[in-house]
């Protein structure tokens, strides 16, 4: 039987003034990913960023959904989207917010139509999209959830080689996987968003997707408390007693293996992480600083609960580095490799 063709991945190039476009050309020039990667963005912009870095790479424009064969060396297949205004590295322009959103729409449509097995996203700038009047936009994760019409998705970041870590014979350091109960919310709103319903939905998705992607028959998930010392028996906040513990008890009765709620500061220590397959943090800055300390530059962000594969980088637009060629493409490389492996498994 002929081997299956490598999966197609749509790679959105992100905020045009950020490091996304140059990371895409750096990656295309440096490595041969285990997937047929099609960049989604402005071909002229990509050619300009490649030239600026002295990289010989020519965009190869494809029609929307056009099948892509293995990219020839020096060619970057692109599903084109036109910039709305010229873009200079490091200088945000709200006129290009619609361009960034269109790149997402093209990638989503390709995934939904089966032209791509998944999408990988370079970073966008949430603030400039909101400044441009796209009220309610808070990030790819929520945009994809709404575009796909699913009630809940889960943001999980994992240090590199996370899928490989469970392969027989793997001797590497254990991967850290951190999922979030809430994503892009002002801190003031977090406590109200921690409801039994949300925790049940998030933990069921996390449990199911850890089983599916990582081959873990009964994943063990450690759940952080919300308050210092997990509420100190109710003296430092009552969410643990009134919301989190009852939600975890109900899920344990369904068979989920859950520890907690545990004080987040002690949970993230080696002894407490031993044997834990993933941590559920209650909010963005409870979990992600730990993950980034452990693996910034070689970690990826995975959206769990979508009908197709989506991974992303572990960093933002880094406007301070845009156009300099000093940005590290490591996380994008990991995100593409992970998406390719997930897409192979799904096929
Ligand atoms: N997946 C996405 O689309 C993400 C987008 N963002 C957005 O990015 C924007 C900027 O966010 P910041 O908090 O400033 O974070 P940032 O990640 O853009 O920058 C933080 C620091 O890390 C450095 N850095 C980031 N990526 C790097 C790379 N590849 N190589 C070397 N150094 C790198 C930057 O130079 C900066 O010093 C915000 O609008 C935020 O919403 C942030 C995270 C993820
Ligand atoms: N800090 C992670 C992050 O902001 C990723 O957001 P998203 O745009 O992938 O939803």
TrEMBL record:
Subcellular location per the Swiss-Prot or TrEMBL entry: Cytoplasm
Catalytic activity: 4-(phosphooxy)-L-threonine + NAD(+) = 3-amino-2-oxopropyl phosphate + CO2 + NADH
Residues that hold a divalent metal cation according to the record: 184, 229, 284
Pfam family, one: PdxA
GO MF terms, alphabetically ordered: 4-hydroxythreonine-4-phosphate dehydrogenase activity
Keywords: Cobalt, Cytoplasm, Magnesium, Metal-binding, NAD, NADP, Oxidoreductase, Pyridoxine biosynthesis, Zinc
Pathway of action: Cofactor biosynthesis; pyridoxine 5'-phosphate biosynthesis; pyridoxine 5'-phosphate from D-erythrose 4-phosphate: step 4/5
Principal location: cytoplasm
InterPro entries: PdxA (IPR037510), PdxA_fam (IPR005255)
Cofactor: Zn(2+); Mg(2+); Co(2+)
Binding-site residues for substrate, renumbered to this chain: 140-141, 292, 301, 310
EC number: 1.1.1.262
SUPFAM superfamilies linked: Isocitrate/Isopropylmalate dehydrogenase-like
Keyword Magnesium: yes
Signal peptide annotation: none
UniProt remark on cofactor binding: Binds 1 divalent metal cation per subunit. Can use ions such as Zn(2+), Mg(2+) or Co(2+).
Function as written in the Swiss-Prot or TrEMBL entry: Catalyzes the NAD(P)-dependent oxidation of 4-(phosphooxy)-L-threonine (HTP) into 2-amino-3-oxo-4-(phosphooxy)butyric acid which spontaneously decarboxylates to form 3-amino-2-oxopropyl phosphate (AHAP).
Subunit structure as annotated in this protein's UniProt entry: Homodimer.
Assigned protein family: Belongs to the PdxA family.
Other observations noted: The active site is located at the dimer interface.
Protein name, UniProt field: 4-hydroxythreonine-4-phosphate dehydrogenase
Gene: pdxA
């Amino acid at each position: 039987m002929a081997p299956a063709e490598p999966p197609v991945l749509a790679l959105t190039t992100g905020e045009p003034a950020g490091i996304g476009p140059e990371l895409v050309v750096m990656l295309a020039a440096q490595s041969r990913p285990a997937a047929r990667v099609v960049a989604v963005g402005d071909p002229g912009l990509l050619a300009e960023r490649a030239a600026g870095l002295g990289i010989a790479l020519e965009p190869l424009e494809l029609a929307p959904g056009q099948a892509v064969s293995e990219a020839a060396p020096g060619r970057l297949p692109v599903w084109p989207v036109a910039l709305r205004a010229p873009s200079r590295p490091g200088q945000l322009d709200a006129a290009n917010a619609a361009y960034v959103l269109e790149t997402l729409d093209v990638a989503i449509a390709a995934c939904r139509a089966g032209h791509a097995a998944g999408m990988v996203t370079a970073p966008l700038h949430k603030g400039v999209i909101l400044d441009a009047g796209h009220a309610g936009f808070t990030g790819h994760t929520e945009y994809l959830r709404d575009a796909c019409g699913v009630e809940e998705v889960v943001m999980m970041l994992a240090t590199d080689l996370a899928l490989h870590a469970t392969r027989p014979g793997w001797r590497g350091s254990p991967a850290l996987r951190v999922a979030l109960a809430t994503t892009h919310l002002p801190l003031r709103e977090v406590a109200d968003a921690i409801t039994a319903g949300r925790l049940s939905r998030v933990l069921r998705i996390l449990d199911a997707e850890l089983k599916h992607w990582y081959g873990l028959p009964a994943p063990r998930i450690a759940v952080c408390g919300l308050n210092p010392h997990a509420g100190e028996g109710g003296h430092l906040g009552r969410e643990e007693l009134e919301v989190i513990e009852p939600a975890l008890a109900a899920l344990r009765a369904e068979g989920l293996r859950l520890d907690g709620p545990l004080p987040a500061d002690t949970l993230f220590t080696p002894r407490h992480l031993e044997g834990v397959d993933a941590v559920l943090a209650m909010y963005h800055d409870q979990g992600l600083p730990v993950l980034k300390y452990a693996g910034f530059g070689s970690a990826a962000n995975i959206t769990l609960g979508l009908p197709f594969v989506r991974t992303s980088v572990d960093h933002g637009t880094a406007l301070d580095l845009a156009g300099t060629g000093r940005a590290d493409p490591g996380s994008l490389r990991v995100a593409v490799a992970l998406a390719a492996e997930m897409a192979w498994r799904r096929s």
